[in-house]
Amino acid sequence: MLVAEAPESSEVRVASLCDAYLQWSERHQSPETYRGYAFYLQKFSEFCGFLRVEDLRPYHVTKWIDGEKKWGVTTQFNAVRDVHRVFNWAVQQQLLPKSPIQGMPRLKPKSRKTYASEEEYRALRRAAATPFKLVLLALRQTGARPGEVRNLKWDQVHDDRWILTEHKTAAKTDKPRVIHLSRLMQRIMQILRRSSQSKFVFVNCHGKPWTTNAIRLQMERLCKKLGLRNICAYELRHAFATHAILNGVGIATVMGHRDTTMVSRVYGHLAPQTDYLAAAVQKAARIAADGKTKRPICDGKPNTATDRRG
What is the pTM of this model? Predict the structure, then answer.
């Protein structure tokens, strides 16, 4: 075990360092964060774990990444980021004098420049089983991050809002994130609460909370089944933001950002051209005019109006 060895030991192996970091992560970070590190560091250790830390070079990390043929740019970015964090942690703990991959260029994650169209969203929702249908609906109706939906617990659900004390920007804002609910989502929360046997709001068919990988696989399977492009769950948050922008809603706070800079940079360029702007205006006017409340999808009754309009 690494902590029993001298930090300057020339015999410390990469696998031992990864194990020490995972022990720390399991004690001091969330289970989800720990699982993410465990996934990448297990693979990294299988490839480079036999090396002494002092012999490790950026070349070895690059060769490992190049060998993972199925990984996209974002996954590669996450893998290299986690390896950097292991060695930076070791330096902070004075287990190492410096990181052996210090100065290694970092990959740039793939920019999210797309969003799920209404047609794509409706197709996904129609094809999904009820547990995942509810996840899709929550993402599209609230603009919440997938992680916020997955980890939502009943003690965070109030009559017309979700109040999240742990969220992505909590350290920066020092405030809870408040997600206001549409009338449809309020009704769904009421129905789900009556039958729920879990502390988590959104669960799979086995009554267990969704994981990152489970949602990713569900999206992949649905897209393949429907012949759609590879849509990720985060694109439903983008769809919420884009439609809000097109309808003149100031969304910095709604989306969980402190100011409009992030919103403008990430979401502003997603807004389509004039023809779609015109369609959005017409749709907004039509919704405001009819003022009808749609029945939630989880009450056991057909909901063709919701499926038809999204």
Answer: 0.64
